[in-house]
Amino acid sequence: MTSLKLFILFMMITMMQHHGIIYRTGSRRPAGPTRKSMEDFAKPKPAHMLGTWRISGVSITNDGVVQPDGQPVRQYEAGDKHNILISFFPDSTFTRVATNGEYTTGQWDFDTAAHTVFLTSNRRTEEVGVFFSFADNGLRLINFEFSPKQSVSLTEYGSKLSRYQDDPYFAGNNWWRVKPSAPENEAQIRARLLNYLSHMAYILKSAQIREQDYISMEFSQGIVKLYNVGVGVVKKDKIPANWLGSFYSAKEAHKAYDMFEDYLFTGKHKRYESGNWVRDDHNILVDIQNGMKQK
To answer: What is the pTM of this model?
Structure first.
């Protein structure tokens, strides 16, 4: 299955041309949230939706083929090479990050009676059926049913944090991904760089809180290079295209790179030797942020 179809199946509501609210029945309502719907967004959210999820596959019913019990057979396809994470937060926001650089933010609400979730982005809302279960290894699973014939499965990638603003995929830690529509000055470029560094620090911090046994930068490719123990910068000819594309131009991206590289060589760095490289690298990144803010 191509990445385009996977995106359409899973929340590519941001790419649709018309505005309004689309329900699973296909009926439409006028664009824009009502007073009641805005109040609903402020209600406490169900804990089983919170956290970060990774798309693990797409299930498509094969028409005309049935099992002995009369139920349709579902063809399972593994996730596309352009993998996707979606994170749900208690403040009714969600973010979607893909390894190909796609980034989306929006709002969500859960209908307990209908067991559906409403996903809103770019003034468009989609109602999707939701089913919860657990894998054999204890990880939570979600199945989003877009129609009786098409569904998407998601596997727990990161449990919710008690302070959700510290989640690396919370929108406030990811605005560096949003390409500016106009050239930026030095202060704006520095702010974008600092937000990226903050995101990287939160990846390490959340890994400690969640007691993860691995650190993945798959969805956060950039110029930071982590060592055991230490923080460096990738070679200039190895800067990931997604990171370059988050700036207005390659020239501005290289200016941010030079800011970071210059501070690594000229800034004062405290030594950390706790025996836990994740904790030490997190502290180093925080020190770098604080030092660069003062320049």
So the answer is: 0.81
Average pLDDT over residues 110-137: 88
Closest CA to 17 of 117, 122, 127: 122
Euclidean distance between CA atoms 10 and 248, whole angstroms: 28
For 154-171, how does the pLDDT look when each residue is reduced to its tens digit (9 = 90+)?
999 999 999 999 999 999
Mean pLDDT confidence for 272-286: 95
Q: Does the pLDDT of residue 70 top 70, yes or no?
A: no
